[in-house]
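INFO  loader      accepted 1 record
INFO  loader      residues=273
INFO  predictor   begin
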Amino acid sequence: MNSSRQVFFISDRTGITAESMGGALLNQFDSIEFKRSTYPFIDTETKANEIVALINQAAKQSEARPLVFSSIVDENIRTIIKTSAGLHMSFYDAFIGQLEDEFATEANHSVGRTHGMHDTERYDTRMDAINFTLNHDDGITDRELQTADVILMGVSRSGKTPTCLYLALQYGIRAANYPLTPEDMESSDLPRMLKPFKHKLYGLTIDSDRLHHIRSERRPDSRYASRENCRREIDTAEEMYRRFHIPYTNTTHKSIEELAASIILAAKLQRRF
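INFO  predictor   done
INFO  writer      dumping tokens
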């Protein structure tokens, strides 16, 4: 068995679909190292032939044939890609035919319908959510906070900002976040800005050793990054969550995708797309 394989993700648009679906399959093979290359916007026969030449060259330089994952709508371009020396796996070949049979109708074979601009309403919704999240990052303002779908709260560097941005970008969810300050930690009440929106709050926590590591990369040898301070802040935040019955989750071992999905489920958030 070869321990290393060259992988080509090929698409007539961004390549996100091919990468996501192909990557999900490859992640099931821990013992193999994959050298991944992505080639988006392969939307002409000339470009397809150039990619075939690259795949064939990679095949000559390796004992194992390259793996080719494609999400290409045009049948002529797919046919060209199939002539390469790689193992070709087309997501359209795999599923479109079955769906056409099931629906008793032919697919429209339009390019760019997954990550393109054909649905301007959906795109505008996503941009609005992203702008909202950027304008409500780290408790900048409470203006229009009543229109938030969710408000993530937690200690500094617990994962609030990237999670909010992911929720906005992927699902159109208007997500704000609020960092718990030393003053908040000393109070027996919820932060003033958050009190009117208790029903929208969702807490994030993190293991103290992980938080210490993250903060040390930013401000090494500081009180902010010390293990004792990290542990104290986390204990105080979790006690606040329990006192005010705020649902919360630990971010330590969750990817951003897993974290977002768990928050959507637990907070009963409505995806806009």
